[in-house]
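step=encode ok
step=design start
structure_in=
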């Protein structure tokens, strides 16, 4: 696996785990749609890894950039909506 692909795997795994925990903790209403989008990216990453391992590295570099762009759109869209929801419906803080 290329270094760029490995970094993308690490980043997305950490990101998706954090998102999933937040959505479950806050009973996020868009949980299904959000996790479906995560699943599609994981499928693309798995497919990309297979392509890279078969020796098609030039095509893989372009695909990695495409996935990075997709992830940026996801963060600016679905993740922003999630963070807004959590901020508006978060666990109340007890103040003394
Ligand atoms: Fe997400």
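sequence_out=
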């Amino acid at each position: 696996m290329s270094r760029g692909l490995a970094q993308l795997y690490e980043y997305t795994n950490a990101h998706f785990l954090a998102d999933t925990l937040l959505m479950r903790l806050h009973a996020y209403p868009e949980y299904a749609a959000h996790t479906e989008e995560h699943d599609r990216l994981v499928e693309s990453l798995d497919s990309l890894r297979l392509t890279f391992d078969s020796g098609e590295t030039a095509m893989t570099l372009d695909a990695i950039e495409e996935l990075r762009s997709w992830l940026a759109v996801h963060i600016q869209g679905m993740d922003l909506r999630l963070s807004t929801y959590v901020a508006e419906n978060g666990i109340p803080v007890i103040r003394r």
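step=design ok
step=annotate ok -> Residues 49 and 55 are 10 Å apart (CA to CA).
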